[in-house]
Amino acid sequence: MVEVGETKSLFEITCETLKRAYVKYNAYIPWYIMTSRENNDDTVKFFEANNYFGYPKEYVAFFKQGELPMIREDGKILLETKSMVREAADGHGGIFEAMNKNDIVKDMKNRGIEWIFIGGIDNILLNVVDPLFIGMAKDAGVKAASKTIVKANPAEKVGVFCKRNGRPSVIEYSEISEEMANLRDENGELLYGESHILCNLFNIDALELIGHEKLPYHAAHKKSNYIAEDGSEFVPEAPNAYKFEAFIFDAFSKVEDMLLLRSLREHEFAPIKNKEGVDSPETAVALYKAHWNI
Q1: CA separation for the pair 196, 178 (Å, rounded)
Q2: Which of 12, 71, 72, 197 is deepest in the core (most CB within 10 A)?
Q3: What is the predicted pLDDT for the residue at 237?
Q4: How far apart are CA 102 and CA 62, in angstroms?
Q5: What is the pLDDT, as a whole number, of residue 255?
Q6: What are phi and psi for residue 74, nearest 5 degrees?
């Protein structure tokens, strides 16, 4: 619901892409939005208050992400209240299980949907409707595809594509060694330089298959309030707990092969991750305006 640039929310910017697709192809594309327990009601109310940004309500569906318990650094489970365990969203990789549990895949099948694009709402250049991308995936005979951009430098905080045990995979930036990050090929390009930017395409069959399998969890060190043994609320000043997240790219190993389509950063990737500096609203809006010649 964050507003960027000319007072447009991230949801509205994505919706504009869908409305442009309707004008071009004379077809409304169903829009499935994964929310969380904490923000679902506010998100639905936001859409209702804004009349779904002029998009037909029957083509918009919301479903909640799963959650997992959080633990302290000493391994004890955190409490949200005296009688409730503190839980946190289970990462964007939880989307597959959440779609199956909430009958989203069933709804897609009923609508005759064959290909599903999954992207992050914080990327204001997210191209959610790309026939070329779908056509290339179909032509290659694969069940999954992903857009990439060339890594800006070895230290950029993005996951990179690789093959692991003969299957497509991604090494997260927090898990790659400095030595591997700096390796270059015979042309001088980074050996691990194809960045995963959360622009993924899945065939409905692959989506259903992955939804019935468990993905591995990655630990993230976070700050979290909790109820202490004496009943008081503990408010940390530094990271004090771990949450567990599944990453969407761990699903790539469930397919035999996938297509990678290298894209231009200035056309596909303007993320908002920080309040200021790199990947901030300021940098994202500048890329957005340059792309659309605003």
Answers
A1: 18
A2: 197
A3: 92
A4: 9
A5: 93
A6: -90, 5
The yes-or-no verdict on residue 278 having pLDDT over 90 is no
Please give the CATH number for the structural domain made up of 3-292. Answer: 3.90.550.10
Q: Using alpha carbons, list the distances in angstroms from residue 51 to 21, 44, 54, 215.
A: 19, 11, 6, 36
Instruction: Give dist(CA 235, CA 174) in Å, integer.
Output: 26
- HSE-CB at 78 with a 13 A cutoff on CA atoms is 24
What pTM did the predictor assign? Answer: 0.90
The 3-state secondary structure of 230-287 reads: CCCEECCCCCCEEEEECCHHHHHHHCCCCEEEECCHHHHCCECCCCCCCCCHHHHHHH
- Determine the residue type at 83: S
Q: What is the pLDDT of residue 174?
A: 84
For residue 16, give every residue at least 6 positions away whose Cβ sits within 8 Å of its Cβ, in sequence order, or none: 8, 53
In DSSP terms, 35 is beta-bridged to 64
- Taking the C-alpha atoms of residue 19 and residue 27, their distance in angstroms, rounded to an integer, is 9
The conformation of residue 190, written as its DSSP 8-state character, comes to B
CA dihedral 141, 100, 241, 176 (to 10 degrees): 0
Residue of 44, 28, 27, 34 lying closest to 65 (CA atoms): 34
